[in-house]
Amino acid sequence: MKKETIVYTAGTWDMFHIGHLNIFKKSKELGTKLVVGVSTDELVASYKVAPPVIPYKDRVEVVKSCKYVDEVVKQSKLMDINQLKEIKPDIITIGDDWKTKYLEGLVWAKNQPNIKVVYLEYTSRISSTQIKDTIKAGWQVDKNIIAANQNGLFGKNVLITGASSGIGAAIAECFAKAGSNIGIHYSSNDDGASSMKKKLSKFTEVKLYKKDFNDSSINLVNQFVKDFGSIDILINNAGTMSPVSIFDLDSHEFNRVFDVNTRAPFLLAKDAFLHMKEKKYGRIINISSFVINYGMGRNNSIQYAASKASLETLTKGLARMGAEHNILVNAIRPGVIMTAMQENRKDLKERIKLIPVKRMGKPEDIAEMCIHLCSDKGSFITGEVISIAGGE
To answer: Comparing 74-78, 115-119, 197-201, which segment has the lowest mean pLDDT?
Structure first.
């Protein structure tokens, strides 16, 4: 019988490590056991940390309340060798500030061939790349990463279209900080995409995908799955405006708008569905627009509003089809959001006066809703169109 994998988290003297506990969310099918050492008040006092410090008994209760914890042990001495021998861990996690300090037990553990020591940054989140590179205890970390945090997004494979700037970039950053692996699609903004990859790579694994959605063939999802092994979340954010009034509209401009705003999300969702059905899990979010309320966009561009209305109809249909497979599909209608496109408007001040809350929204407002809908907290939401438009 395969030995149960034991993860021992040491040095939980305050709330920093409560975040760390979630990195090792228990994976029952892999037989992982999480044991947490909680330092006594005397030991915490020796750390000379800044007050206030939560009393030992309260810290024990907090740690025990974490659903991923299997066992709590009293820690009178940090990394006590005798205690470690009793626990028999396969993996030991400890704050990275101990890298430069001497701990007898840490030295002992690092010399044991069957123990892996992982240093954790003092943050509530940790890079999935770091987990992949450091935790090798017999399981397939590329497919079964121990989940990182309470929202259930750690290790999820997320493809975001139009993510080199603006709303898409904010969405990518939020998911990256949650520990998800990120695919950034873009059409032409090479500098923006490269900048985003550099920025987000410190959190997780990031790949770039350059694709013009006006092309007849879209094979983006299959390439993403080839790179990451699966697709868990698809955010159809890419869109294009249309400066042409309906009275000057020709078939080429009409098709250009619908290709990007409706046809591409449809084809991407169709391809993603096939992979998500196999896993019995998937989340799809389509980014629409509040202009549907008015029936047209700027410059009387009815075609833009129509393309987004079609996207919402697509959302409703996919939600119906996906529910039985645990594939949840929703749409978000952003209002006037502070992006480069809006900031260059000559009538911006007058436009803001029309918003009931009298201000523009932020890209992060949309990103946080995406996080909520794709997290465990959004597991009973599908087929909805959610407006984030300041009351418009």
So the answer is: 115-119
